[in-house]
Amino acid sequence: MLRKAATACLALFLSVVLPPSGVAQETVLYVSTAGNDAWSGRPAQPNATLTDGPFATLTKARDALRELRKQGPLRGPATLRIRGGTYGLTEPLVLEPEDSGTPQAPVSSTRLTFP
Fold it and tell me: Which of 5, 33, 43, 99 is the most exposed place for a label (fewest CB within 10 A)?
C-alpha cells in the first residue's frame, strides 16, 4: 500500500514538473547591460562564476531566437526580457517578419526594472 501511494505521489509530482510533450513551453531570453553575448541568455543575471547569464545586446537576442527556430518550431511563446539601461547600437537593429513569431508561438518583449 505504501509503495502504491509513493508511486502515485511521484507520478503526480512529475506531471506537474515535467509538462507533456504537446504542452506549450515559453522561451525566455534575457538582455542586460551586465550581460555577455557569449552566454546563453537564459539566466536573468550573471552566475557567480561569470560563465552564463543574460545577453549583452538586442541583436544577439534576436539572432538566438532565429537559431532556436532553425532547430524546429517553438512550442510556445517567446519573450525577451530587457533590463533597464542604455544599449548602444553599432548598426540598425533590423527585424524581419519571421522575428514576430507565429500565432502558436508569438514573440514579445518586456522591459524589466530593478531597484
Answer: 5
Report the predicted TM-score, pTM, of the whole model to 2 decimal places.
0.75
Q: Concatenated DSSP letters for the chain?
A: -HHHHHHHHHHHHHHHHS--TTS---EEEEE-TT--TTS-S-SSS--TTSSS--BS-HHHHHHHHHHHHHTS--SS-EEEEEESS----SS-----GGGGB-SSSBEEEEEE---
Residue ranges per structural domain of the chain: 24-112
